[in-house]
Amino acid sequence: MTNALLDTIKFPSDLRKLTKDQLPKLAEELRAFIIDIVATKQGHLGASLGVVELTIALHYLFDTPKDLLVWDVGHQAYGHKILTGRKDVFHTNRQLDGISGFPKRDESEYDTFGVGHSSTSISAALGMAIASSLKGETEKQHIAVIGDASIASGMAFEALNHAGVSDANLLIILNDNAIGIDPSVGALKEYLTKVKADRSLAQNNIIKALNFDYSGPIDGHNFKSLLRELKRLKNKKGPKFLHVITTKGKGLSQAEKDQVTYHSPGQFDAKTGEIIPKNNEGLPPKYQDVFGETIVELARRNKKIIGITPAMLSGSSLKMMLEEFPKRTFDVGIAEQHAVTLAAGMATQGMIPFCNIYSTFIQRAYDQIIHDVALQNLPVIFCIDRAGLVGEDGATHHGVFDLAYMRAIPNMIVFAPRNEVELRNILYTSQMGLNQPIAIRYPRGRGVLIDWKKPFEIIEIGTGVCLQEGKDIAILSMGTIENNITKALEEFPNIAHYDMRFSKPLDEKLLHTVCTKFKQIVTLEEGVKKGGFGSGILEFIGEHDYKNKVTVLGIQDHFVEHGTIDELQKMNGIDVNSIKKKLRSLA
Amino acid sequence: MTNALLDTIKFPSDLRKLTKDQLPKLAEELRAFIIDIVATKQGHLGASLGVVELTIALHYLFDTPKDLLVWDVGHQAYGHKILTGRKDVFHTNRQLDGISGFPKRDESEYDTFGVGHSSTSISAALGMAIASSLKGETEKQHIAVIGDASIASGMAFEALNHAGVSDANLLIILNDNAIGIDPSVGALKEYLTKVKADRSLAQNNIIKALNFDYSGPIDGHNFKSLLRELKRLKNKKGPKFLHVITTKGKGLSQAEKDQVTYHSPGQFDAKTGEIIPKNNEGLPPKYQDVFGETIVELARRNKKIIGITPAMLSGSSLKMMLEEFPKRTFDVGIAEQHAVTLAAGMATQGMIPFCNIYSTFIQRAYDQIIHDVALQNLPVIFCIDRAGLVGEDGATHHGVFDLAYMRAIPNMIVFAPRNEVELRNILYTSQMGLNQPIAIRYPRGRGVLIDWKKPFEIIEIGTGVCLQEGKDIAILSMGTIENNITKALEEFPNIAHYDMRFSKPLDEKLLHTVCTKFKQIVTLEEGVKKGGFGSGILEFIGEHDYKNKVTVLGIQDHFVEHGTIDELQKMNGIDVNSIKKKLRSLA
């Protein structure tokens, strides 16, 4: 297939030169372009394929970038990026110094609001719309495109509740495909399903009840209905809501059928759609699977165990527990706040809830962790996946703040395993009955051990371990970054290495020994230095008036962009070579 | 009036011995009891008066504490406390070592879930209900009582969205009085108002759309309808929703009329209801009013200024701006997440949003601060009121984490004024055009200056000031705790005192001078020590390998209970006398 039409388009102004009849052909080309590049370069696939027609229609009819378009989450914005000046660099997607996998203000004036986390688009677009209104720009339109999984999140409801009583020029487009990353859940989703089946419900529905000019549902792959309805809405003032039905993965049959896998399929054959099998044989497991397999094993023995995740069922591998224990496993949708307080409620009744949330997303439940869990000292077990640098997802997704913000919370135990066995054992220890909450943070990706399914052992809370004896210099680490040190230390057999394991409570006995024995201490974590684990070591040293020279290594005080984890570690001076270099300078 | 009936009741089991006909008399006595005590001891009034009948009816019909009752927020739980074993100690409400002003698990088995922040009750009760269901306790009921302001918050919606598809024995009672602390706002509130006016809407409404067995609205002051409906619901399985209409302040005419003032009226005449006037003449202003008056002054000059608060209109004094600039002032309801991202959206369009949220509540928007504001480096101005210890509201409300969790965020400026002039000047400085976000944290209560309305002056970002020269020892402080030091230093004319003002960016030039000149450094903040301002000083000293002895003073690593601010400062070693004592030990 040639890209006869797509080749003519650099910006939406070029797109607007096409006739309406040419748009289906353009959609075909755009879809093929996305498939071709994602097939080799990887990235998010299904979501962008689902909104190809909608993307074209929006840029065709609205006066972007003057009219302001906000994509919720941004998984689905590849078509948008390609049509707004980034076609030629689209192959650099998610690479270091390449374009971001999500809309990003620095990258283009068409990216009006940076996204990555869900459910922000209505608030952001409403803020823009109110600003325009105050500036007298009454013709300007402000559009939020949001999926049915995202709109069910509390934050989106808060924005709807406000937007419904404003008179701002806001158009909310619900991109209803009944799936987020995993299939959507909840009462609202069931309701939307009914609306789609029985259009009479469209006349008197939840959205109308919230004061919106509701229209739809319409077919999001049909240009005729899309253009007609968008044209009508373009000229209407005030808050409007268009319900569009799309198919995630549209145009690639495998992606339509297996929407979960093709959300982000890795490499695949662009022609056939078949995923190119990876040879994972002999590789250590992913940490998420260590969690998933272990929780199933524990849940078999301990009936009190409950699994909860806010919409990270596949990504956290809690799906394994759902399959065996459907009544004790809860995907509550994109609802971090609710997930945490739900767990707190369960814990009051003697259950043992494991609440699995990615590090970057658990930021959404910070208050609930403090107010509902820690203040009441309820033994909720937080399994914080994707902690540390996450690589290609970039700045919106790195889980680098958790060590700092968790440490500030009284009653909270904070643990980071250095390998799979440690993760497995802390999960085991946690369900044996703690009297307080625990945060267990572990990274995206694979571990380091093949033979990790050892018999369970209790980990004593608040104890570190010595991994290498030494003199003069001791390195204290937290979590899987230990592996970088162990490699670096091959060159330094005389530098001691302690895995502190718990940033809270600190192993004070061990620390007294370390502070007494070593002149220099180096701390290392894959988290922000400001207020993090290293800062806790400084507090201990200050409190006890030790005089050790301390070097704190970790993430600098800046947001880290996208790239491979190795590249990003290097930029922050915590890869193997940087650690070696630093140690040479100290030794 | 005698308390003939109330005197017979220590626990709900006693209440259940009364006949239904006696309940209105009991309600009268309970109301009078609350009024009598709150009139002299102070506390929250209107909310508890509004639910007297509902409280009695719930404990009369349900088998509490076996049936689990969760009060949202807990402002309204005084009647509940009095009927559940705490009548004799109710006069100690909100005092150090007295009972808490909110339900609290440690205090009573009838307080099934600790509250204080809003909108947690549905999640908590649902968690309990699911736990009961898994334990086979299928007869048990789980009740959440939630107000119309709280149910409009995102977290409550997340819980409704989950509860609607569960089969747990959950009863949600919407206590609809059209007011939170300020009048309720938003599309849902307007909708509920319509439902009340037009009962035909009750047949096909939002709540039913979310799969609930909806009933109501019924009169929440009428025992007959309350008891009848609750009895019916008690025997129904699954998720149920009862819409009850009440009047906040019911039974005290002034409290019914002026619901905002009588939410927490201070001392008043129990007989007449008249508030006992305080003589505030000659007192310094409240910090909230310094904010309120200053933002109005600035908004007159600078059209780009917008004021936003999530339901803290009166408490933040943003109401002053609303009165003069209604189009530029937004109370978005209990919606911290939305408030922050709304502000971010406005900032992208060149507006200057001041987002005023209490310290304890802005925890709810931590992710939005990181992901929507700081990552995009948008110049949103966070005005964080009620920072530090708040006194009688207690553990759920102290704003002691902000210095720690804000410092971890790249791009964020963190400032704390030591007095009114500093607050005024930083507000002025912020609206002159920053290129990044700023968090300005200031306390509850009054300042220290009578003559605070000085001409505006720019504060240079990242600069501290020397308040007293000295030798050997330097104290570095952050915020209004400065006043304690200044008093303490009357005894120590040779100890230096620096108000660092910014915990981020730190005044590094000044710090180099301090570290070079003084042997000992004492840091002081009204915030948690773990990861806070003092920790930042330790990081600086560690980084530059200074060898000063550092003493970090602040809030210990525990949750602080209720009491006067003086009492609580003393418990944490940061009142004037504790500081003196510490300095004597160091000097």
Strand order of the largest sheet of chain A: 7-6-8-9-11-10-15
State the CATH superfamily name of the largest domain in chain A: Thiamin diphosphate (ThDP)-binding fold, Pyr/PP domains
Largest sheet of chain A: 7 strands, mixed
- Our Rg estimate of chain A from Cα atoms comes to 25 Å
Q: What's the CATH C level of the largest domain in chain A?
A: Alpha Beta
Question: Which term fits the overall shape of chain A?
Answer: globular
Which regions of chain A contain 5 or more consecutive residues with pLDDT less than 50? none
Oligomer: homodimer
Task: Work out the helicity level of chain A.
Answer: 25-40%
Fraction of residues in β-strands of chain A:
15-25%
Distance from N terminus to C terminus of chain A (CA atoms, Å) equals: 61 Å
Most residues in contact: chain pair = A-B, 112 and 112 residues
What CATH architecture of the largest domain in chain A would you give? Answer: 3-Layer(aba) Sandwich
- Reported by name, the CATH topology of the largest domain in chain A is Rossmann fold
Integer tally of domains of chain A: 3
Number of helices, counting only DSSP H or I runs of 4 residues or more of chain A: 24
Q: Can you walk me through this structure?
A:
The structure is a homodimer of 587-residue chains. The mean pLDDT of chain A is 96. Chain A is globular, with a radius of gyration of 25 Å. In chain A, α4 runs parallel beside α11. With 587 residues, chain A is an alpha/beta fold. In chain A, the strands form three sheets. In chain A, strands 7-6-8-9-11-10-15 form a seven-stranded mixed sheet, with helices on both faces. A five-stranded parallel sheet of chain A has the order 1-2-3-5-4, with helices on both faces. In chain A, strands 12-14-13-16-17 form a five-stranded mixed sheet, sandwiched between helices. Chain A contains 24 helices and 17 strands. Chain A has three domains: 6-263, 3-Layer(aba) Sandwich (Rossmann fold), CATH 3.40.50; 287-441, Rossmann fold (3-Layer(aba) Sandwich); 465-586, 3-Layer(aba) Sandwich (Rossmann fold). In chain A, α22 (533-543) links the parallel β16 (520-528) and β17 (549-555).
